[in-house]
Design a protein that fits this description.
This protein has about 90 residues and is mainly alpha-helical. About 50% of the residues lie in helices and about 10% in strands. The protein has four helices and two strands. Strands 1-2 form a two-stranded antiparallel sheet. Helix 3 packs across helix 4.
């Protein structure tokens, strides 16, 4: 099927798209993820409870974030239940 010709539609350049991303402020979730990863980078092999206390957030929020990061392959879980320790992947 032939492509229509004419019209004023132009695709944004790669530079424009990159500039748009650079101007975007990170979300609170992005900043929290960064804090979790930075803390694990500084001290690996920590529990979710220790991480929550260090970041001054509820342990449930830390566990949820660690589960997401685990699915993405960013962190590794070692141990079970209370003995679980988290490491960067």
């Amino acid at each position: 099927m032939p492509m229509p010709t004419g019209g004023d539609h132009t695709e944004p350049s790669v530079d424009t798209a990159a500039d748009d991303l650079a101007d975007t402020e990170p979300s609170a979730d992005d900043l929290f993820t960064e804090r979790v990863v930075d803390t694990l980078a500084a001290r690996e092999g920590v529990s979710a409870r220790w991480l929550a206390e260090s970041l001054d957030v509820p342990v449930g929020r830390v566990r949820d974030e660690l589960a997401i990061l685990e699915r993405l392959g960013c962190v590794i879980r070692r141990g079970n239940t209370r003995s679980t320790c988290w490491y960067l992947g």
